Structures are given as structure tokens and as C-alpha cells.
């Protein structure tokens, strides 16, 4: 179990807010100092929202500084936090497309930086996060970052930073692809004659149930699919359309490639 006095969160949008919810639930810090100028951060127990760096309490001593602002505005935000770039503090960035070297250029070569890509199911402790440690990050700081993100879901580490762009495309954006599947399945049910509200409930419940089954089962995804597919049955007829020429796989391959390319563009 990890614990620190101060956790400093820079940016409290969808992802930052999701992680904050998980951290509060796991009680990983005494104070959650949140810098967020654009939205009203709820004044929850232990959460201290401010609008900018200069409004932080003078006794702020963060064990971790979490950088959760959009990558496009990182340059406007990051420079004042150089004052926290000490060996005792680790910067944990979830900004897509921003490599470790970007932060070392702006925070100083001695900054300890871990780059991470979580996803929004972190809000219900069902996230998945992939991390990469920059130079000088100690085993203790790696363990601290692992503990923070383990509090909101599963954690994986990479040795090759370049693969973070692919992670961004697969698991970072992956929940949106699943939500699109729910939308599309509901619309297909509606087109086939179901009332819209029933079609949506069926689509949503089916995806939720299938995900829970995949989580609990030791069988691979292809085995689970085959378990539902009777030869010559209704599911087989549907899969014949979805798998014709590997259409769905090819579509997702193009989608992941496009997202990964955009992540690399953001690094420029």
C-alpha cells in the first residue's frame, strides 16, 4: 500500500478526474492538490483545487506530480513546476505523444519522469495503464507510480518508449471503440425492428456481460467467441459478415495505425 502526504495533479479533465476518483477511494495521499483553471473541481474531502501554480500552498511538497493536461497546451503549463524537479519527486505524465525527453528539456535534465498511458475505466478501478521510466527514476519511484496506477486498474511496464504510441492507440483510445460498438449494435437492433431504448439496453448489457466474462475466464478471446458460435447457427451467420475478408480486423488495424500516427505527430 502506497501513501504520501501530497499528490499534485495538474489538469482535472476526464482522465485526471477519473484517476483522482480512484486515488481518493484508495486513500493514497493526505492531500490531493489539483491545478485546474477551466472546470469546477468538486471540493471533496482531502481535495484542494486551485486555478494555477501560484495559488498552490507554500508548503506543497509532492511525492508525485501528475501531468494530465492536454498535450497541445503542455508548453503553456509546465515551466513553473521546475521548482519541484528534485530527486525526491517523480513526474508522472499521461500526455499522449509527449516523450520523456520533452519533459527533461523543460523541467531540467535531473527531473525524474515516468510516462504513462491510462484509460478512463480508471474511474471505476477497471483501467489499464502502461508505463515507461525515464533516466534516473529509482525502483522506489517506479513502485510509487505502479502503486498509483494499480489503485485504478491493471499496470504494465514497457522497456521501449516508442511503443507508448501504440498503447495510446490500443488501450488509451480503446474504451471509445467499445462505446462505438455499443452505439452501432444498438442502431443495428433498432434498424431490425427493436424499440430504440430496448436495443440500447440490450447492446449495453451484452458488452458489459461479455467483458466481465472475458475478465473472469481463462479462455482466450477466440475460444470465447467460438463457444458462442454454433456451426450453421445465427451467430455464425452474423460473424460471416463481420469476419468476411477479416473486415473488422482490418478496420481496427487502420484505426490503431491512425491513432498511433497522431500520437507521434503530437510529439513534434
Q: Can you offer a commentary on this structure?
A:
This protein has 268 residues and is an alpha/beta fold. The chain has two domains: 4-164, NAD(P)-binding Rossmann-like Domain (Rossmann fold), CATH 3.40.50; 174-266, ProC C-terminal domain-like (ProC C-terminal domain-like fold), CATH 1.10.3730.10. 46% of the residues lie in helices and 17% in strands. It has an eight-stranded mixed beta sheet with strand order 3-2-1-4-5-6-7-8, sandwiched between helices. Strand 4 (62-67), helix 2 and strand 5 form a beta-alpha-beta unit. The longest helix is centred in the last third of the chain and has 21 residues, at 196-216. The two termini are 38 Å apart.
Give a nutshell description of this structure.
This protein is of the alpha/beta class. Helices cover 46% and strands 17% of the residues. The chain has helices at residues 14-26, 74-77, 100-107, 139-150, 164-172, 174-191, 196-216, 221-228, 234-242, 247-266, and strands at 4-10, 29-35, 47-50, 62-67, 90-93, 112-117, 127-133, 153-157.
Amino acid at each position: 500500500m502506497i501513501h504520501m502526504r501530497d499528490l499534485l495533479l495538474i489538469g482535472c479533465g476526464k482522465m485526471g478526474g477519473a484517476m483522482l476518483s480512484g486515488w481518493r477511494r484508495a486513500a493514497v495521499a493526505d492531500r490531493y492538490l489539483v491545478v485546474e483553471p477551466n472546470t469546477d473541481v468538486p471540493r471533496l474531502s482531502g481535495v484542494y483545487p486551485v486555478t494555477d501554480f501560484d495559488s498552490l500552498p507554500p508548503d506543497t511538497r509532492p511525492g508525485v506530480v501528475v501531468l494530465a493536461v492536454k498535450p497541445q497546451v503542455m508548453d503553456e503549463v509546465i515551466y513553473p513546476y521546475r521548482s519541484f524537479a528534485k530527486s525526491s519527486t517523480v513526474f508522472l505524465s499521461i500526455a499522449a505523444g509527449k516523450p520523456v525527453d520533452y519533459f527533461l528539456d523543460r523541467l531540467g535534465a535531473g527531473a525524474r519522469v515516468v510516462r504513462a498511458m491510462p484509460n478512463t475505466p480508471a474511474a471505476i478501478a477497471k483501467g489499464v495503464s502502461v508505463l515507461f521510466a525515464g533516466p534516473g527514476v529509482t525502483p522506489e519511484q517506479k513502485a510509487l507510480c505502479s502503486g498509483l496506477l494499480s489503485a485504478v486498474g491493471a499496470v504494465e511496464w514497457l522497456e521501449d518508449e516508442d511503443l507508448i504510441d501504440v498503447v495510446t492507440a490500443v488501450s488509451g483510445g480503446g474504451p471509445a471503440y467499445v462505446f462505438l460498438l455499443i452505439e452501432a449494435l444498438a442502431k443495428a437492433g433498432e434498424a431490425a425492428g427493436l424499440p430504440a431504448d430496448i436495443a440500447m439496453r440490450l447492446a449495453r448489457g451484452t458488452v458489459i456481460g461479455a467483458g466481465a466474462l472475458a475478465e473472469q475466464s481463462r479462455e482466450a478471446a477466440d475460444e470465447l467467441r467460438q463457444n458462442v458460435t454454433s456451426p450453421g447457427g445465427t451467430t455464425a451467420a452474423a460473424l460471416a459478415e463481420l469476419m468476411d475478408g477479416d473486415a473488422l480486423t482490418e478496420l481496427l488495424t487502420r484505426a490503431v495505425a491512425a491513432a498511433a500516427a497522431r500520437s507521434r505527430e503530437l510529439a513534434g
